[in-house]
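Researcher: Next entry in the queue.
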Amino acid sequence: MRVIVVGAGIGGLAAALTLKRAGLDVEVFEQASELREVGAGIQISPNASRILNRLGLEEPLRRVGVRPHAIVIRRWDDGRELARQPLADACESNFGAPYYNFHRADLLDVLSAAVPQRVLHLDHRCVGLAERGDRVEVRFHNGAIADADVVVGADGIHSSVRAAILGPESPRFSGHVAYRGLIPAARAAELGLELAVSVWWGPDHHFVHYFVGAGARYHNWVAITPGEWRVESWTAKGEVTDALKEFEGWHPQVRAIIGAVETTNRWALYDRDPLPRWTVGRVTLMGDAAHPMLPYMAQGAVQSIEDAAVLAKCLERANAHDPGAALRRYEQTRKPRASRCQEGSRRNAVMYHLPDGEDQRKRDADMQAATTAPLPQNAWLYGHDVEAEFDQVSGDS
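Model: Structure for this entry, 397 residues:
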């Protein structure tokens, strides 16, 4: 069986690796003329890192990843610690795989280095596709045409494959705008920052920061604020003074971290309801093309890696004359879990930003009660093994 993956982001490259491991003939077509990842930090939890380790990437991931000691949640004004959830060795002993912080470019480099060069085609932007009998034909902006038994849209939040099979979408502006910045480690050292994922919750805002890069060479931060700026782009420039103004009255450490950068980027956050379907005939979607989610569970890329693993399992067992059935099984297997993450991210958008008052005090008390054991509330997420579950349901050893 021949598979075309449209999109060479984290999910698309993970799909290329899982599909090749399953013995399928796979090619990846990417619209960019070079592989580069926008953004800076990304969190990869054990439910995805175990999949990447099984692809033979354990050593390079350990070289470029940072294993944070904990997730620490703090109050916005006085810095009071609301919850501390152990990671690092505690996470690996609980869930059998590491929790990593990566610079996105480092993670993309590890994945792309594992994909044979002949598999990847750059400067190929998908402009249309058509199912013709037992093949799907994909057309590209440069005039090239390719065909395969199956096409997978891994082309992100503005997916052309999704538009081709499902029509245009209508995203809903969340009312939130994100700023991001990256601080060199030397400057971060002056701030005395802990090797942890630190999250500060406050009225209508929250702030996240953690180390990334081999040797923790950078400190990455993301600031979520209310706003009406609606450009959905990770590369649009923002103003540091605007970000600081949004966090007036916040703890001095938050303001010091924001003020330690010379430039910042910003992007508008859009919410999307779960799609009614991911699959039409021999074409399916994965990652942000299938289930884009707000970034309030740190599961966007993680869920795309889970998609890749299950998709490969389904196609490995597919009837060559009816791959559509395997794609429908993939969707039925993955959709409930991915939708749960979408909906959880939407709920967190409310919970993180509660104004000070009774609801906020109850939230803080609940968080403290939930951390009597390492990450208990995340066992369903971090402890889940999609490949083992699939094999168990399928009766494989």
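Model: The chain is about 35% helix and 25% strand.
Researcher: Noted, moving on.
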